[in-house]
Amino acid sequence: MAHEHYKAIARNSLLIRSLPEQHIETLLSHANFRHYERGENVFLQDEEATAIHVVIDGWVKLFRVAPNGAEAVVSVFTRGGSFGEAVALRGTNYPVSAEAVTAAEVMHIPSSLLISLMKEDPQIGLSILASTFMHLHSLVEQLEQLKAQTGAQRVAEFLLTLCQCDCGPSEVILPYDKVLIAGRLGMKPESLSRAFARLKTAGVKIKKNHAAIEDVRRLREYTEDDPADAWSKA
Amino acid sequence: MAHEHYKAIARNSLLIRSLPEQHIETLLSHANFRHYERGENVFLQDEEATAIHVVIDGWVKLFRVAPNGAEAVVSVFTRGGSFGEAVALRGTNYPVSAEAVTAAEVMHIPSSLLISLMKEDPQIGLSILASTFMHLHSLVEQLEQLKAQTGAQRVAEFLLTLCQCDCGPSEVILPYDKVLIAGRLGMKPESLSRAFARLKTAGVKIKKNHAAIEDVRRLREYTEDDPADAWSKA
DNA sequence: CGCAAACCTTGACCATAGTCATGGATTCGT
DNA sequence: ACGAATCCATGACTATGGTCAAGGTTTGCG
């Protein structure tokens, strides 16, 4: 197979690592890999699920289109991220659509294989449950952010997830374009621009797709403030 | 046991009905029941999970408190609703807090029992996964609504979930107080009042906790409109 | 019954973010 | 290297929803 390198990446994903050791090779050897162009759909909302998806390279977004045409981005995955676990195991329909937002390489694990393996090892079900729960958790956090924070605070939160260090200055690269960042954070691109502008007062400078954070701790405090207080600091 | 009536209700819950027949009695006989006063906590965020919870009577909300003090309501359950499934099975900590918003009766299924039963029957894991996935799905819908709809449209959507018929006139009862409805829909009570006022133009009249819907179909159209269009119809 | 507390509505005002339009910058294909 | 297209920033304006304050209504308790 020409995919040994891809498999190595897959083995490093949280989903695969949580699976029982003895089944990993079986699963990987039956997985298939596919390249997606930017803008190409991986699957559509309401389609029947036939596989679990693991991103090998590039970026993939999950989103819903509301009846009025507005698009709500639910999550964005890159190398090592997996999605569709619960749906694949249960054989129901996708509640969201998936689209490659850059050229992307995605591994697909056929759900038929997964289901048959699960019958001999219930631990697989637990791995799926763990992944599903992580997604659940991330949605709960998104809800909290949407309901309790201003746009600028959500942007700050987003920047913090991008930098690993937890204090001092830091420089991060915006991983995908601003239209998508805006969607992920529940705002319009124009509002994102203004949020960036506002974050200057919290020690953040944006140039192209680089963000320079003066002091990570200060930015974290900014996200935890009451919106009114955050304003008064400006 | 004095709880036969409660168990009958539990048997009717989606979670219990999805469990394998032969384990239901075991699970129910080891479950325990507890009464909660209004405002009492069922559990707190970051506590370790020891049970799955099934609401027998009354209403229970799941919520998170943001660092800035704002509260985000994640979901609200009543008779037959269950929560904490995934967390119980995995033995991790709750990502949310749970509080009775009316006097409530809640059944608790110890996770230790669940875990040991699951070892002999992996189908139990699938039932848990199914419930977890339903919660996931409902969060995705909430995200979509928050990102793509105005307050008034979310209120309309909420009213529609309360009435079973799908066309013609309908009368529904608001199941809990407006502060909580507002929280559930991501707005302040004042905004909820105004949203109700605005829905008058869509054929909805609110009196106390009764909502009279002139035409369900018309209200559904209202939720599907672009906010600007919805406005122009007023 | 009567008072107090909780709940709800309304008004005035303002902050936040969406819309529309414009112009600058960057990227890409030829 | 040129031009087209895309992406991004900004300004002006508007709509939505949050905040603060006041007042009405309902509920529950003594």
UniProtKB/TrEMBL annotation, chains A, B:
Ranges in a coiled coil: none
Residues annotated as signal peptide: none
Cyclic nucleotide-binding domain ranges (all copies): 15-106
Record InterPro entries: cNMP-bd_dom, cNMP-bd_dom_sf, Env_Response_Regulators, HTH_CRP, RmlC-like_jellyroll, WH-like_DNA-bd_sf, WH_DNA-bd_sf
Domain HTH crp-type: 149-217
Keywords: DNA-binding, Transcription, Transcription regulation
PROSITE patterns registered for this protein in UniProt: CNMP_BINDING_3, HTH_CRP_2
Protein name in UniProt: Cyclic nucleotide-binding protein
Originating species: Parasedimentitalea denitrificans
Taxonomic path: Bacteria, Pseudomonadati, Pseudomonadota, Alphaproteobacteria, Rhodobacterales
